[in-house]
Amino acid sequence: MSSWTKKRGESVVGSSREEDQLIVTPLGAGNEVGRSCVYMTYKGKTVLFDCGIHPAYSGMAALPYFDEIDPSTVDVLLITHFHLDHAASLPYFLEKTTFRGRVFMTYATKAIYKLLLSDFVKVSKVSVEDMLYDEQDINRSMDKIEVIDFHQTLEVNGIRFWCYTAGHVLGAAMFMVDIAGVRVLYTGDYSREEDRHLRAA
């Protein structure tokens, strides 16, 4: 379960000017498990964390509340790990909305994401009309995904970010984002337990 529990539209840091407010808006997983997706805006910069589906629903009902935002304003989309509730609406968001920003995940997450989502499409028991995307959409989305190493610092449109090991699953990351000197750590799912193949967060 994600560490964010803010209600939609709640300001985290107040100010007299709206662009000076750090606003965090859960588009899913705010008070539920599933469709993890958190919208954050500050100083005219916008970051989206995760892009999952709700496992209890199908079709459009499984998506995060994308209608609450303008996807074209999102500068950077950061995916913490490959689980469906954190990444399975990504092909839809990349291929069927106005999003034109950049998307990042770790190498391992990208490799497993492709396999997991291809399997998700094959085993989904929904009508063709209710399918959110197909194999071609997944392949096209792969071309748009960029990779980031742990502790590597990148900058996009004035947004600096880097990631730490989250434990949980292979490739899982916690993202630190710095906008104009204000830093926010988005953990996604993480584990403090050592495993035979994973370090603790």
Automatic annotation (TrEMBL):
<dbReference type="InterPro" id="IPR001279">
    <property type="entry name" value="Metallo-B-lactamas"/>
</dbReference>
<dbReference type="GO" id="GO:0006398">
    <property type="term" value="P:mRNA 3'-end processing by stem-loop binding and cleavage"/>
</dbReference>
<feature type="domain" description="Metallo-beta-lactamase">
    <location>
        <begin position="34"/>
        <end position="200"/>
    </location>
</feature>
<dbReference type="GO" id="GO:0005847">
    <property type="term" value="C:mRNA cleavage and polyadenylation specificity factor complex"/>
</dbReference>
<dbReference type="GO" id="GO:0003723">
    <property type="term" value="F:RNA binding"/>
</dbReference>
<protein>
    <recommendedName>
        <fullName>Metallo-beta-lactamase domain-containing protein</fullName>
    </recommendedName>
</protein>
<dbReference type="GO" id="GO:0004521">
    <property type="term" value="F:RNA endonuclease activity"/>
</dbReference>
<dbReference type="GO" id="GO:0004534">
    <property type="term" value="F:5'-3' RNA exonuclease activity"/>
</dbReference>
<dbReference type="InterPro" id="IPR036866">
    <property type="entry name" value="RibonucZ/Hydroxyglut_hydro"/>
</dbReference>
<dbReference type="InterPro" id="IPR050698">
    <property type="entry name" value="MBL"/>
</dbReference>
<dbReference type="Pfam" id="PF00753">
    <property type="entry name" value="Lactamase_B"/>
</dbReference>
